[in-house]
Specification:
With 872 residues, the protein is an alpha+beta fold. It is built from 43 helices and eleven strands. The strands form two sheets. Strands 1, 2, 4, 6, 7, 9 and 11 form a seven-stranded antiparallel beta sheet that branches.
Length: 872
């Protein structure tokens, strides 16, 4: 209920409404107003009471109060924020509506003095306004407010009285103690439950005695309410420093109650109540006991124990408690983070229960140190997969002491299984200090550890180890190991060549002056390096007199990632006498121009390479490779390169696929060309699946119509204090021909299949009360009239070839084709500039060019590649 004019609602309905709307403006505090009527402990706690459910069940019933609520909502709202105390009191005492009186109560809660109490007290018996009145009285720091609530107990009944009782409890109104104690004996369970709740909050000696006396023999829901109240009283006494009384309450509950949640809460209260000098003994004894609630509460309290020797005492318990307690205690010791517990935790690794061993491993990984490395390595050889995985994880977690040195020391073990586990761990820990040892092991170790060392070196070796890796590669005669080292070196070079100080001298020297075997071993590594010296070495090796060296160099050349060697690859493709070398060269050139490596090359150069390769290719397999590469370069020139191959029966399927891929990518900017190319695919009579795909693509293009979808955007532009309507006529840089200070960006294509021409500025630019500019170029094969159809959210101004052809300063949602403008296109490129304003909510536009009668203009092409000297 809002203080800004919501209607006052009877208690029954108000509770329901506020549960649905916890962000009520009536109460700016985090707690919901329902808490003033509903007992604490309803949402959480140890009680199994049904009294709260009974209360809400009756509250949610429909009755005549709902009609009152509806009538109140029809009243004019009262803005009470500006009312003073006198005005509020006049409303309460006069003929104000229920809505006005409710708002006045809410205002008095904030500004009311003791003078307001009597007027509010008269409303406590009013079923419709009682909640509003006690809402105000409950927090007033005046004894008169408490007395008013106490006095109202004798003249109210039912839910109204229960609400007042809860308010007395929230106020901690000790003057109501006697009446509240009498309330415990009420036959109406709701009243008794409310009285128990209030007495628990009072926590006075009399209140506690009454609660304890009523507990034996009490039935539900009162029994649960009494337990809740005693727990509340005990917690309140702990907070207030009266630990002895609190401990007595908690102890009695622990002795008399049988439900485990209650006993758990009671013993947790005992722990909070005892003094620090006895806390350790209490917690340790509880953990060692067979009492499950006490064990659970004690384990939760272990974290707060601070007496000297606590960790050692807890560790000593590990060997004396049951398995499930060992698991829990190991976790608690980890939370304490005291490494003194590590030896006792390590002893659990020999327990017969798997869950205990796994818990011990997890704890040892965080509490243990380098001395536990051998123990955990031995556990890595366990037959069971869970235990092996637990030991490996613990080894990765160890951080105390010289763990890396301890692991490296274990590499000298004669047990190859241990060596392999050590290598696995070192790699997982990214311990680069072990690389020299791994290199030695790769050179001299047994087969299994050697392979493990090579696998680890892939991630651990870096530029510092380049010379050592190169030397090892040159020395080895094992072909499999040689291939592994080549991969490791290539990976190091790829990761490191952009870093300062990266030096490929060892590889360059080996390729340039080593013997044939050395050069053959090192040449494959050259493919991953971009370096002028490597380029020179590769060119020379490709002319080597040794056929084996020459072949290795050609293979390395064809696999290179260096576009600077593209001319040499093309030369090899044109001059290779063997089909295999020619195919490798063609494949390498295609990769360089169509994939990530060639992204920096101009598109025209990349397409020219494909043309050259197509003229060189003599085998169907090679042409298919070229088609696959061309499909990755969507441009009109690539489409024209691919289309003739539709006529080759042996290439038709691949050519059709490439045409579809290219046409689909350029259809927005070059719709006419893409449509014509797809029609040619259909004319080539493709298989049923491909025909269906082409027809679907054409349908999508048809649905998109002639909307212009290739745009650049500049902005947003705004001015302080100016609305979208004001900004419409303000001149910003994009409107100035030849402006150089405009940042034009490509606008992403629309993604709404139902509105294929709609372009979203809000998603791209965001905000309100601003404008943006969009520009494109349209190529017309001839001078001709046209109709420009526009839609915008909100206003739009249009320039065609620097002349304003349309302006509509409005606020509206996007409607496709809402504005239609007669324009004349000149032969060649026509520049189109739009200014779109943004009020709020959506921000979109669309535009298309058609013939004056609305039919398609077939010879149009749109583009965003503006010449440098042209602004729009």
């Amino acid at each position: 209920m809002s203080s800004q004019g919501s209607a006052p609602v009877p208690v029954e309905t108000r509770v329901k409404t506020e549960i649905r709307n916890p962000k009520s403006e009536r109460n700016p505090k985090p707690e919901s107003r329902k808490r003033q009527l509903i007992p604490e402990g309803w949402d959480a706690g140890v009680s199994s009471s049904n009294s709260h459910r009974r209360l809400l069940g009756s509250v949610f019933g429909f009755d005549a109060a709902l009609l009152t609520l509806l009538l109140c909502f029809l009243s004019a709202p009262l803005h009470s924020a500006d009312l003073d105390e006198a005005s509020c009191l006049n409303l309460l005492r006069g003929e104000g509506t229920l809505q006005q009186k409710d708002a006045a109560c809410a205002r008095l809660k904030r500004i009311g003095t003791a003078h307001s109490v009597s007027a509010l007290a008269t409303l406590l018996g009013d079923e419709a306004l009682s909640h509003s009145a006690r809402f105000a009285l409950e927090s007033m720091p005046f004894p008169e407010a408490g007395k008013a609530l106490v006095d109202a107990l004798g003249r109210t009944t039912g839910l109204t009285r229960e609400g007042i009782i809860y308010s007395l409890g929230n106020r901690r109104e000790t003057n109501a103690t006697v009446m509240l104690i009498k309330g415990l004996a009420e036959t109406e369970s709701g009243t008794a439950v409310a009285a128990a709740n209030a007495l628990g909050k009072l926590a006075t000696p009399a209140a506690v005695r009454a609660l304890q006396s009523a507990l034996p023999g009490a039935h539900e829901p009162l029994h649960a309410a009494l337990v809740d109240a005693l727990l509340t009283a005990g917690n309140q006494l702990v907070t207030g420093g009266d630990r002895n009384r609190a401990a007595a309450i908690f102890t009695q509950l622990g002795l008399t109650e049988t439900k485990e949640p209650v006993r758990l809460a009671a013993f947790a209260g005992v722990i909070r109540s005892v003094h620090e000098d006895t806390l350790n003994v209490l917690v340790l004894n509880a953990i060692a006991s067979q009492d499950r609630p006490q064990q659970m509460a004690a384990l939760q309290a272990v974290r707060i124990l601070s007496a000297p020797g606590t960790t050692e005492a807890l560790a000593e318990l590990l060997s004396k408690v049951a398995a499930h307690v060992q698991v829990a205690l190991a976790g608690v010791l980890v939370q304490r983070g005291d490494s003194a517990a590590a030896p006792a935790v390590a002893a659990l690794l020999n327990r017969p229960e798997l869950e205990v061993r796994l818990a011990a491993m997890a704890a040892l990984g965080l509490l243990g140190d380098a001395s536990h490395v051998p123990l955990l390595l031995a556990k890595c050889r366990a037959a069971g997969e869970p235990e092996q995985a637990g030991a490996r994880e613990a080894l990765l977690e160890l951080r105390r002491g010289p763990v890396a040195a301890a692991l490296i020391g274990q590499l000298a073990s004669a047990d190859w299984e241990i060596q392999s586990e050590v290598i696995r761990t070192l790699a997982g820990r990214a311990e680069k200090s072990c690389v020299p040892k791994l290199l030695d092991l790769a050179r001299h170790g047994p087969d299994v550890p050697r392979k493990a060392a090579l696998r680890a070196l892939i991630g651990l070796a870096d530029a510092r180890h380049l010379a050592a890796l190169t030397q090892l590669l040159v020395e080895t005669k094992n072909p499999a190991m040689q291939a592994d080292l080549q991969a490791i070196l290539a990976g190091v070079c790829e990761r490191s060549q952009s870093q300062a100080g990266f030096d490929v001298t060892p590889i360059v020297q080996g390729v340039a002056s080593g013997d044939a075997e050395t050069r053959i071993a090192l040449l494959p590594v050259c493919s991953s390096i971009k370096d002028p010296r490597i380029q020179t070495a590769l060119r020379a090796a490709c002319e080597d007199s040794d056929a084996r060296v020459k072949t290795a160099a050609q293979r390395a050349l064809c696999a290179t990632r260096d576009t600077g060697l593209l001319p040499e690859i093309l030369t090899l493709a044109a001059s290779a006498k063997e089909n295999s070398a020619s195919t490798l060269a063609i494949r390498g050139a295609i990769r360089l121009v169509s994939q990530e490596e060639g992204a920096a090359l101009p598109l025209a150069q990349r397409i020219e390479v494909l043309k050259q390769l197509l003229s060189l290719a003599s085998r169907v397999e090679e042409k298919r490779l070229i088609l696959a590469g061309a499909a990755n370069l969507p441009a009109p020139e690539t489409l024209n390169l691919v289309l003739p191959l539709l006529e080759d029966a042996s290439l038709q399927a691949e050519a059709a696929q490439a045409v579809m891929q290219i046409a689909g990518a350029i259809r927005d900017a070059h719709a006419t060309l893409a449509r014509a190319a797809l029609q040619k695919v259909l004319a080539a009579n493709p298989d049923a699946e491909r025909r269906q795909a082409v027809e679907l693509l054409l349908k999508q293009m048809e649905a998109a119509g002639d909307y212009l979808k290739a745009w650049q955007v500049a902005g947003p532009y705004q001015q302080a204090g100016k609305t979208y309507k004001d900004l419409f006529d303000l001149v910003f840089p994009p409107e100035n021909p030849g402006a150089r200070d405009v940042n034009w960006r490509i606008l992403p294509a629309g993604t709404d299949a139902k509105r294929p021409g709609a372009l979203d500025l809000l998603k791209f630019l965001g905000g309100e009360q601003r404008v943006a500019y969009a520009r494109t170029r349209v190529y017309s094969g001839k001078e001709q009239p046209a109709r420009l159809e526009l839609g915008s959210d909100d206003g739009i101004k249009v320039w065609l070839n620097d002349n304003v052809v349309h302006a509509n300063n409005t606020a509206r949602a996007l409607v496709m084709g809402a504005d239609k403008v007669r324009v004349d296109l000149k032969q060649g490129w026509n520049t189109l500039l739009l200014k779109i304003t943004q009020n709020n909510l959506g921000w979109e536009f669309c535009a298309r060019l058609v013939k004056p009668d609305g039919t398609r203009l077939d010879d149009l092409t749109s583009d965003t590649s503006f010449p440098v000297e042209v602004n729009r």
